[in-house]
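TICKET: design request
STATUS: open
ATTACHED STRUCTURE:
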């Protein structure tokens, strides 16, 4: 079975997984400190399971689960008296990514036609926050729930305000490589993520180097270096505490896991210079073109 999405459970007690067959399950540690698997629900269950198709995304928060199906919308379950009970579905087709906000009381989602929306759970009304020009691929919400970063097809990410004021839905920053050589050779498989206590945004992988952007001025300030022939497909960030620095874990197409430590006093510790990234990558690409002409 192919796993589509994974989410941490409360207090890091285990993980929730969503398979392409719609099975939602958990992996938790037992008293012997061994991992054990348990099925909790079948998202495609029911008379119309074949029409639902494969799920596209998962969101989990405390006692609630949401699963997106591109053809029908988002299905929601609440854990009530020991049972996962289905709630009213969110009838919005083309959903590509979802995330719980406001401690699980609302859901933020993106669609293939570029709509960023919000809906209260379980009985709210879906409302569009903004209309973007490209398909929304992934999203991440900052710790305070006031902003969301979304990655779009075409090699760009945007910072959008979602807090309840007059700025809601406003696009405040756009993250896109300015150098043509970088943009044409970048991949964006891991989507987008806040990092370093939401001061930075991780977006884009060029020759195995993940670009780290300054959130405020949308410039590349540093990077996470991997093997040049590898592609970063997953990123997970932990901010740590004031006393201890945060961590960033990446996973690549070749099956490599990398661990980066961010100092609590210096956000760029163990990260290479963004200026060096740009210069080295441009020279590397230029050298490759010259060799190709000679060959």
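STATUS: resolved
RESOLUTION: sequence designed for all positions
ATTACHED SEQUENCE:
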């Amino acid at each position: 079975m192919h796993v589509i999405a994974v989410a941490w459970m409360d207090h890091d007690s285990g993980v929730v997984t969503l398979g392409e067959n719609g099975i939602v399950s958990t992996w938790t540690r037992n008293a012997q400190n061994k991992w054990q698997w348990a099925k909790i629900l079948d998202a495609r269950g029911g008379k119309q399971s074949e029409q639902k198709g494969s799920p596209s995304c998962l969101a989990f928060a405390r006692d609630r689960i949401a699963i997106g199906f591109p053809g029908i919308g988002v299905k929601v379950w609440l854990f009530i008296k020991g049972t996962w009970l289905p709630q009213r579905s969110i009838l919005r087709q083309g959903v590509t990514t979802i995330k719980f906000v406001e401690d699980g009381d609302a859901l933020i989602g993106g669609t293939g036609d570029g709509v960023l929306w919000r809906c209260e759970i379980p009985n709210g009304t879906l409302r569009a926050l903004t209309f973007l020009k490209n398909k929304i691929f992934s999203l991440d919400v900052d710790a305070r729930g006031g902003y969301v970063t979304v990655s779009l097809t075409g090699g760009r990410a945007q910072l959008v305000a979602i807090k309840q004021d007059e700025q809601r839905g406003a696009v405040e920053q756009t993250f896109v490589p300015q150098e043509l050589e970088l943009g044409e050779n970048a991949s964006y498989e891991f989507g987008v993520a806040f990092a370093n206590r939401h001061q930075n945004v991780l977006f884009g992988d060029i020759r195995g180097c993940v670009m780290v952007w300054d959130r405020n001025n949308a410039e590349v300030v540093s990077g996470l270096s991997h093997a040049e022939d590898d592609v970063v497909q997953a990123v997970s960030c932990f901010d740590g505490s004031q006393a201890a620095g945060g961590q960033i874990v990446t996973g690549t197409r070749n099956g490599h896991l990398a661990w980066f430590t961010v100092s609590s006093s210096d956000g760029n510790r163990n990260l290479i210079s963004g200026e060096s990234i740009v210069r080295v990558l441009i020279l590397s690409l230029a050298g490759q073109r010259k060799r190709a002409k000679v060959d």
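CLOSING REMARK: Residues 220 and 254 are 25 Å apart (CA to CA). The chain has two domains: 1-176, 177-295.
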